[in-house]
Amino acid sequence: MDITVVVITYNRCDGVSAVLDHLAAQKLPPQIEWEVLIVDNNSTDRTSEVVGGFCHRYADRFRYLFEPQPGKSHALNVGIAHASGNILAFTDDDVIIEPDWLWTLTSALRSGKWAGAGGRIIPQWLSPLPSWLRTDDPDIMGPFVAFEPAISAGSLGRPPYGASMAFRREVFERYGGFRTDLGRSPGNLQGREDIEFGNRLLKRGERLRYEPCAIVRHPAPAARMTQAYVLRWWYWFGRAEVVDNGPPAGTRLLVGGVPAYLFRRLARWTVQWLTSLTPTGRFSSKRRMWYLAGTITACHLYHRQQAGSRSTCDAFSESELNPKQPATK
Fold first, then answer.
1. 153, 159, 165, 166: CA torsion to nearest 10
2. Which pTM was predicted?
3. Which has the closest alpha carbon to 132: 268, 287, 274, 293?
4. Is 275 exposed, middle or buried (0-12, 13-18, 19+ CB in 10 A)?
């Protein structure tokens, strides 16, 4: 098998069929063998029924797997383990996919020159833009899954996003799968599993390619075009950064495991939020406040976790030195 497309889905029975229609219509050379593997991450709606219809209609192309353990990274790793292709492509369950997306994204990977590739992701606005949303601000645009790092195809110096990316199978065999402490699960927006994996490859000298003509469009429904959603997204992005990279370095002054300068930054952006005169200025400051709140929360949780680990190790060492005494915390 040449290519496997892995799609993770969760409780999106009303929308996933459109994505599968787009995938069924992909145009590839006739000699290329390819498949679509849908991993249902413990959905409780009619997802299995909807996907089952596609598997019946395209029995030689579509496969369905059910992964009961919640968490997108768990489902991604199950998909990788069960994929048959030498190249694995990934997309989301709520996107609009151009007919030549798959071949454009993956064709350069067949030579072995590139370890992976990322395609262009264009937000699709489903309602008028609110006054506080600036599409020319890459920070504000983070929750809307925009990825257009260059005009032309070529080497990619940053990780691709999960809605449009592909890797050679041996990359996973060499470097492992997606980290399961990252990736969304019910109740949180802690993503970054795709960014961490791409960074892992780049740090080890692997080459990634950008394909601007491999296009998916990511709809932005009205429910996401709210300040509440964007602020929540940035809070979880701050938390995910600490889970990925550890707490920010460069300071000895900690308050509950949190670098003190983060509190100063939070105070600064709070003042700027209160004094800004424009909707975009106020929201930009507020977005930074929520990002810092997520970072501060994650630093404190990391500190508590490390302190708990040290207490356990200290107690274990003491019991080893004096086996007749029970270990105490």
1. 90
2. 0.89
3. 287
4. exposed
| β-bridge pairing 254-255 and 258-259 | antiparallel
Structure-token pair, residue 172? 């996973």
Look up residue 196 and give its amino acid.
E
Calpha distance 296→235 (Å, rounded): 10
Per-residue pLDDT of the chain (329 residues; tens, 9 = 90+): 999 999 999 999 989 999 999 999 999 999 999 999 999 999 999 999 999 999 999 999 999 999 999 999 999 999 999 999 999 999 999 999 999 999 999 999 999 999 999 999 999 998 888 888 888 877 778 888 899 999 999 999 999 999 999 999 999 999 999 999 999 988 888 899 999 999 999 999 999 999 999 999 999 988 888 999 999 999 999 999 999 999 987 777 899 999 999 999 999 999 999 999 888 889 999 999 999 999 999 999 999 988 876 554 444 333 333 333 333 33
Beta bridge partners of 219: 124
CB 74 within 8 A of CB 67: yes
* Domain count along the chain: 2
208 and 259 co-located in one domain: no
Residues pairing with 218 in the sheet:
123
Residue 325 lies in a domain: no
Q: Is residue 238 part of a domain?
A: yes
Same domain for 80 and 44 = yes
Whether residue 166 is found in the same domain as residue 280: no
